[in-house]
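User: Hey, quick favor. My workstation is busy. Could you predict this chain's structure for me?
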Amino acid sequence: MKIVTTEQIRDLDRRAMAEMGLPGVVLMENAGRAVIDVMLRFYGNLSTQRIGVYCGGGNNGGDGFVIARHLRNLGANPCVILTAEPRTGTDARVHFEVLRHFPIPIVDVSSQTNATFDLVVDALLGTGLKSAPNALLKEAIGQIRKSKCPVISVDVPSGLHSDTGEIPGGELGIVRATHTVTFAYPKMGLFLAPGSDYVGETHVEGIGLDWERLDFNEDFRWVTRQEAQSYATPLFRRHLDAHKGDFGHVGIIAGSRGMAGAPAMVARAAQRAGAGLVTLLAPVSVQPILAGKLDEQMTVPLPEAEGSLSEEGFDTIQNHCKRFSVLCVGPGLTTAPQTVRLVQRMIAEIDIPIILDADGLNALALNTQCAQKRAEAGYSPLLLTPHPGEASRLLGTSIAEIQSNRVASVRLLAERLSAIALLKGSNTLMTAQKCPILVNSTGNPGMATGGSGDTLTGIIGGVLAQRRYRASFLEGMALGAWLHGDAGDRAMKEIGATSLVAGDILAHLPHSIRHLEETA
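Assistant: No problem, here it is.
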C-alpha cells in the first residue's frame, strides 16, 4: 500500500475535485461516514452513547461535523466541542451549517471542563499541523487526554506532524488515539517515532474514489500482509521433484570466543526461512561448540587470533562463497583489528550478495571506502541492517539525529554506502538508491531483546537465497522483515512482551510462513 506525504494527499484531493468533478463536500461526507463505519465495527450499537466530537476550524473539523450528524442519526448523544468556527465559503462551513439544524449541542472548548464521555472523536487538526498547537487547541487536546475513554482520531492524531512523526507541542500537546482512521492512503508520520506511539490501531478507509486512477510518484510503501504475500509467492512454488539445491545456500561468517549464540541463531533462522543449505564459518575454537549446537546446518573452522577471526581465513571464505547464494556477515564477530580487516576485504572483494549486521556494520563504519569499491566494481548488492546506534556510526552522527529523521537517515545510508539499507526500530524502514522507502507493518516492543537482530539477519538470508533470481533484493529484505515481525507478534500474543526472547521468534516463524502461504 502506498504511503503519502501531506503535500501529496492535498494534491490528490485537488485533482479529484478538478479532474473527476468530485466536490470537496462529498469527499468530506464520505470521510465522516468512513469514521462512523469504524466506530460501529469496534464499539457496536452507539445509541445512547455520550460522544464528544472535538472539532477544529479546518477540513478535519468538517469531517467531525459529518461524524456528529451521523452519530445523532444512529441514536447517540454527540456533543460538538469547537476550538474555532470554519471560515465562510469552505467545505467545512457547509457541513457546519447543516449541523446547526440538528439537536446537537455545540459548545466552545473553553466552557467544556467537566463533561464525561463514553467515546471521543478527535477532529481538531488532522494533517494541518505545522507548529505547536495554540492555547485553545492545547486545551482541547488536554481535555481529550483526560477523558479516560477510547479516542478515535480522524486522519492523524491531533498534535502529530503528518510527515515526520514529530510532536511540536511536546508530550502534552498530542492526542493519544485508540484508533486512527486515515483516508485513501496512510500518512508517513503515522509510522515514525515519536508520534507513532500515539496512533493506536490504524485503519485506512476509502472515501468514494479509486485513488489509483490519480497516478503520482511513489515515495513510500507500507508492507502489509497483502504486500508480503506478493513478495513471497515464489517461495511457495516447490515442484514435486525439488531438491535442496533448488532453494539456495546461505553462508554465514560469525562468532568469536564466548559468542557462539549469535551465529547459531542466524543459522537456524536461515534454514527455517526456507534455505536449502546453510553453512556457518566460525573461528576454529568456536566451530566445535557450534557443531554441537546445530543439527541441520554445516560448520567450517576458520583461522583465528585470540578467539576472533583473522585475515588468514580470507581464501577459505572466498572458495566457499563459490557455492553460496548469499553471505551473512557480522553477528558475534568482535571488532578486533584483524577481524575488521577481514570483513572490510570481504565487502570489497567478494561478489555475492552480502547481508551485513552487528560487528560487520561496525567494521564497515571504520572504513566506508570498501563499500564504495564494491559498488564501483559492479558487485552483487550489499545489504545493511543497522539499529540506530550502528546507523549513527555508519553516518558519523548521533543516535538522536538518526531518530529525529529516520526517513532521511535510511535514504542516506543507501545513497552514501551504495547499499540496500534497513533501519531497525518501530516500523522498520528499508530502501535502496532511487527506490521508495518500504515501511514494515509488523513487530512489537517485546522483540527488543538480545538475539532478535540475529534472527532477522538469518531470515533475510534464507529468503534471499531462494529469491536470488526471482525478485528484487529490496523486496526480499522487506519480506524477511515482515516475517520476522509477524513471528514476533505471534510470540507476544502467546507469552506477552516481557518474557519474549529471540528463540520465541524463531519458534513462531514457521507459523508466519505457513499462514502467509495458506492465504496467498
